[in-house]
Write a structure and sequence with these properties.
The chain has eight helices and two strands. It is mainly alpha-helical. A hairpin with a 2-residue loop joins strand 1 and strand 2.
Length: 152
């Protein structure tokens, strides 16, 4: 779906939003390419749970982030995700089987249900003890959130 279709009727300045995201990514040294599409990430979430079980979640999540935000690849497509898994050092044949069988569908459903119960509606959301911090945050805000949570 195009970003225009996603935000239709919501008075969103897409070019301004993308400029802010690009600036935030640049400030953090993250790759961020031009894009005008959004893709369903459900299968990527399921493959991420598999990568976590394999002890390779960090490499996979970096690879899927780069594929989506830097390259604008459709992470809703099985073949794209298999390539992402391979780039992260995971077995592409096993990745294909996991996606075909939807082996981690229930695990992701559980994560979504837990988020709903907690009232989480945005990504990222940070939770520690009884505190919640929503949205991308500068390092100083995250440090203070952690310190504050440790005091409780």
């Amino acid at each position: 779906m195009t970003l225009e279709a996603l935000f239709k009727g919501r008075m969103v300045d897409i070019s301004g939003m993308m400029a802010r995201l690009r600036d935030a990514a640049k400030a953090e040294g993250l790759p961020f390419g031009e894009r005008n599409m959004t893709y369903n990430s459900r299968l990527a979430q399921e493959l991420s749970k598999w990568a976590e079980a394999k002890g390779n979640i960090e490499a996979f999540n970096h690879a899927v982030f780069h594929a989506y935000f830097a390259e604008g690849r459709n992470i809703g497509e099985v073949n794209e995700l298999i390539e992402v898994a391979k780039a992260a050092g995971l077995d592409p044949e096993e990745a294909q089987q996991v996606l075909k069988e939807r082996s981690f569908e229930r695990a992701v459903d559980g994560d979504w249900e837990r988020s709903r119960r907690m009232g989480i509606r945005a990504v990222p959301t940070f939770v520690m003890n009884d505190q919640i911090l929503v949205g991308a945050q500068p390092e100083a805000a995250l440090d203070e959130f952690i310190r504050s949570g440790m005091r409780h």
